[in-house]
Structure formats: C-alpha cells, structure tokens
Hints:
elongated
Amino acid sequence: MDPTQLVLQAGPGDWEFVWRQRQFFLDGTWLAVKLTFFSMVLGFAVGLPLGVVEAYGGKYSKGVVRPLGVIVRGTPILVIISLTYFAFGVSPAFLAATLALGVRSAAYQSQIFRGAIESVEGGQMEAARAVGLSKLQAIRRVVLPQALRRSVPGFQNEFTIVLKDTSIAYAIGVAELLKRSYDLFSIQTTAALEVFLAASLIYFVLTFTVNRGIERLHSHVAIPGGNH
Length: 228
C-alpha cells in the first residue's frame, strides 16, 4: 500500500493514543540509552587492550585474539544475544543483552583502535624507546594518546550501530523502545504507523544528538596539522 494512503487513513485518535503513551515511550528510550551506554563502556574496556594486542602483540597472542574477533564479528547479533541468554544462562535479560552487545562492540572497537594505533608513525615508538621508555610505557604515554584522538570518527559509527542494535534485545524480552512499540501496536492495531514513526523519530533524535556531540569532541581533540 502507498505510505501516503496510510498517512491519510490515520485518524487523529491514533496520534492521541501515541501521545497518551509518551511515558511508556520514555521508559523504553531510557532503557535503550542504558543498554547503549553500558555496552559501549564494556566494548571500550575490552576492545582497547585487544586493539593493542593486535597491533603490538606477539605471534601467539595475535593468533588467539584475531580469530576470536573474526568469529564474533561474523556472527549475527541476534545469535549472540540468544546464546548469551538461553545457552549460557546469563540473567536477567538486561545483563545478557548488555554482555552480548558489549562483546560484539569490543570486537569492532578493537579494529577501530588497531587501525588508529597503526596510523601513528613508527618513528615515534622508536624515539620513545630511545629515550629509555619500555615498550609498554611508550604505548601508554606516546602512542595511545594520539590513537585515541584519531579513533573518534570510528567510535562515532560504532555508537550508531550499537544504539540501533539495542532493538534486537526485544528478542529476549527486554522492554526497550522497539519492544514497547510492539506492545502498543498490539493494544491499538490501527496505530501501527504512528507508533513506529514515533519510535523512529526517537532513534533519530538520539543518534543525531550524540553524533553532533561526538563531532564537536572530535573537533576539540583533533591533532593540529594531523590527518585526523
């Protein structure tokens, strides 16, 4: 059916229904925000050291980290969430969703950080070692501060992906924004268009607002005269 016809058919009562349920939407939005935040934090905490290992690790450490990353990145997030909750028994569902999204984000963030680390000129590591720093000290004090600043654009993309993927958590019963939209649609089936338009608008506002904030952060921390 032509979407224009759907808009014309939508009665004012359906929009009023959406407005009356605004607190229900807000609660779902807050849950989606918490899922995104904790998943990104977990992804950062695990992904950064994995990125360092991929850039500077030895033969055996790379031989473990790289295949695991490929497997996680190649597995659909719905499968990871289902395995975490149903097969591994992680509970409650919010914790299982956070863990699954965080692990998957760590696999992607490790590649963001690996690329940023490898973009730092090798001569800087040699200079740091020449003045007496150990390899670990050189990574922590010279390479990582620059790599983190260069990783901001990639981090921005990852935030958008994780935010949208929080909707998959509805598969294990987490009452985030999409789950609540389905619940509302089941109550008033004529309001399907209005309910999902409202949910889409909320996702857009969240994504737009945070992306503009990250862009401002990137402008603030960008290396003067650098490529990033």
